[in-house]
Amino acid sequence: AEAAAGEERAAGEEQEEDDDLGYRLFPERNKQPQSFLARSLFTFHNRCQVMLRMTLDTNPHARLLLEAMKQSGCTVFNDRHFSCENCDSCVGGGFDSATSQIVLCQNNIRHQSQMNRVVTHELIHAFDHCRAHVDWFKNVKHLACSEIRAANLSGDCTLMNEIARFKFGLKRHHQTCVRDRAIRSILAVRKVSKETAEKAVNEVFDACFNDLEPFGRIPHSKSDAKRAYKDFQNRDRYNANL
Hints:
Blueprint: H1 2-18, H2 36-40, H3 43-58, H4 60-71, H5 78-81, E1 82-85, E2 93-96, E3 101-105, H6 112-131, H7 140-153, H8 159-164, H9 173-189, H10 194-209, H11 222-240
Parallel strand pairs: 1-3
Antiparallel strand pairs: 2-3
């Protein structure tokens, strides 16, 4: 029995070593932070910081999420909760739940619209982390739910973005895009089979796709996001008067 238990522990340790939980995509997570002087010499870092500030100041998706997190007791601070870093070429950003920090891939984010989407996507993960007991590392259904919500609400699946990906389907196209991108995100950060990722997404899809907090609607456009932001502010004022 002791030998069997030892083998199980060894197998578990080997599995943990094999699955790095997505950190291979963000190599700078395990390095010592650079000094301000060193960072200032890199154009990518400066550009990332400028675009981040523009997103946080002007983008209605991001502003709504920041206010919603503050109401939930999770105030977001630029210097503490965002980090511009070099990443693997296949990702634009990530949410590190261990540090409650959003990683922005400065070598891959090239346009302001892309920064807007990445920040919004990762802020949705941060919002879920704040409001719910999400088991990011051991429960693939929890990860699937947040990925569904992020794909659904961040603008990842707008018609223009899908056309840019050369995908032109019309019938239930938004749902198909959300499902596909959630599966892709899971496979990027977890060493699980495609069948496992698809099963997790399918099992939670309806409930998580219809969870529209804090937007209250699917913001298909910037004007939708602006209306959602106004509705959220009005809802806040109404609740304050109760």
